[in-house]
Write a structure and sequence with these properties.
Helix content: 25-40%
Strand order of the largest sheet: 2-3-1-4
Order of helices and strands: EHEEHEHEEEHEH
CATH architecture of the largest domain: 2-Layer Sandwich
Organism: Pseudonocardia ailaonensis
Largest sheet: 4 strands, antiparallel
Protein name: DUF1697 domain-containing protein
InterPro entries: DUF1697
Radius of gyration: 16 Å
Pfam families: DUF1697
Oligomer: single chain
Length: 173
């Protein structure tokens, strides 16, 4: 069995795509996953599965579409995936508050991003992720997800650093 963090994109934000966490746990258990738990209300779950990450994500997306009648993108990340993101943290020297440090996971490859299009002191493109330091708070910082969606045509899902650390601690081992 492999432990996964399952991240749902864009649910329970501004009253859109409402998914109760109890319903999400039930849906994941109904798919045959074990050790299912949810964290917070923003579409974070952990589980154990005998499937590859892409298969877990696809099955969860299909089940969500069937149940809710709308597309909800999903990423399934292993403990190793999350630890690699944590270890590669390029803004560690300045980002001293986990609630103001954001990681955006990309739902597709980045071609060649224009360096001039991002504030390189606060926004760094990594391997399949974008790290963003928001010293004035997330709501007072550039909306990198919207930029990436518009300019690079790639969807993202983001979590703050505190949530990343909670997911690492919660993944079944």
């Amino acid at each position: 069995m492999t432990g996964y963090a399952v991240l749902l994109r864009g649910i329970n934000v501004g009253g859109n795509k409402k998914v109760a966490m109890a319903d999400l746990r039930e849906l994941l258990a109904d798919l045959g996953y074990t050790q299912v738990k949810t964290l917070l209300q923003s579409g974070n779950a952990v589980l154990a599965a005998d499937e590859e990450p892409a298969r877990v994500a696809a099955r969860v997306e299909e089940a969500l579409a069937e149940r809710y009648g709308t597309e909800i993108r999903v990423l399934a990340l292993t403990l190793g995936d999350l630890e690699a993101v944590e270890a590669a943290h390029p803004l560690r020297e300045v980002a001293d508050n986990g609630s103001r440090m954001v990681v955006l996971w990309l739902f597709g490859p980045v071609g060649t991003p224009s360096p001039a299009s991002l504030d390189e002191e606060r926004i760094v493109v990594g391997d399949g992720v974008i790290y963003q330091w928001c010293p004035e708070g997330i709501s007072n910082s550039p909306d990198v997800a919207a930029f990436v969606r518009k300019e690079w045509k790639i969807a993202t899902t983001g979590r703050n650093w505190n949530t990343l650390e909670k997911l690492i601690g919660a993944i079944p081992r």
